[in-house]
Amino acid sequence: MESLKLGSLEIWPPVVLAPMAGITNAPFRTLCREQGGGLFVCEMITTRALVERNAKTLKMIRFGPQERPRSLQLYGVDPVTVGRAVRMVAEEDLADHVDLNFGCPVPKVTRRGGGSALPYKRNLLRAILREAVRNAGTLPVTMKMRKGIDDDHLTYLDAGRIAVEEGIAAVALHGRTAVQHYGGTADWDAIARLKEAVTEIPVLGNGDIWNAADAMRMMARTGCDGVVVGRGCLGRPWLFADLAAACAGSAEVVRPALGQVAATMDRHATLLTECFGSEQHAVADFRKHVGWYLKGFVVGSDLRRRLATAETLAGLRQGLAELDAGQPWPEGEDTPRGKTHPRERVHLPAGWLDDPYEIVVPDAELEVSGG
């Protein structure tokens, strides 16, 4: 297995933490990065908010002193604004790598023509990629996408070729359409087809990687050059230790007892407090992680509720101290995490599907970063 090469960057193991809104902030990236190497991507940053120097957005671009390479994902629908944002990242040394979001399936993004809706407009996609690469200087620019809007409007092969032609350093494919959201099964065969069609740059696979064995199977089956891991690491930052071991040829896996999980939960909440500068904000933000960390463990409903509604670090720690520290890792819990239901339809701008080659810049970009 080879390192993942993105321009001048060399990533080992060839594993990427997918940007997830409200999840992949500096504290969570720290927990994952400490487990093993790879590329750990910041939450999605909106190009409009960045160029307008939105205070919240600028605070989200936080990287630890030891965090290298610094990876930033940008979302945008306007080639000019995307170009300005990438130039700002390069000139102000905000990151070492830029990823472009063309995979987000949520309605507030697709109804504006962004995320997984945008590659349908082939020439608009080309214009955005061209401006991003032109303004990036020496920074590698990559892109993450889905198969398309639905099975009748697949775009990933065209988008892959456009990426190569415009100088993109690598493409990542989530093997689902936008309408699937996170439901059903990821189409690994589509990743294999993209790899066959795009030979000049690395192709990364994403979708249904719940453990290191899944990652190895995906790479063997599709020939992809690396994997992107999203929901599989929710409540399980040690998955990156398993991935590093597997890439090195080891079958060793981390299976922490509940006491070790509780210690990680404590540290996660503490790091959030240091990052946000507000204990109340940090503990409230941590609540969504509680269910993921405790998935499969035998924990009483009252204690789960108290942990998920704690308002202070002291209250959280009191609940963590009541957990059965010696309870072993629950077998069979390498299963889907997070939302899994498909959508009935994809929300799109009016007339979006009329002409796939029309260059039309949607009315407005998102004003708030993070998805």
Write structural notes for this entry:
The chain has 371 residues and is α/β, with parallel strands linked by helices. The protein starts with a strand and ends in a 50-residue tail after the last helix. The mean pLDDT is 94. Strand 7 (141-146), helix 7 and strand 8 form a beta-alpha-beta unit. It is built from 14 helices and ten strands.
Keywords:
single chain; 371 residues; 10 strands; eight-stranded parallel barrel; 38% helix; two-stranded antiparallel ribbon; alpha/beta
Poorly predicted parts: none
Residue share in helix: 25-40%
Measured between the Cα atoms of the first and last residue, the distance is: 34 Å
The helix count comes to: 14
Number of strands: 10
- Biggest sheet descriptor: 8 strands, parallel, barrel
Structural class designation: alpha/beta
Mean of residue pLDDT?
A: 94
Order of helices and strands: EEEHEHHEHEHHEHEHEHEHHHHH
Q: What amount of the residues lies in strands?
A: 5-15%
Strand order of the largest sheet: 3-4-5-6-7-8-9-10
Mind telling me the C-alpha Rg?
20 Å
Shape: globular
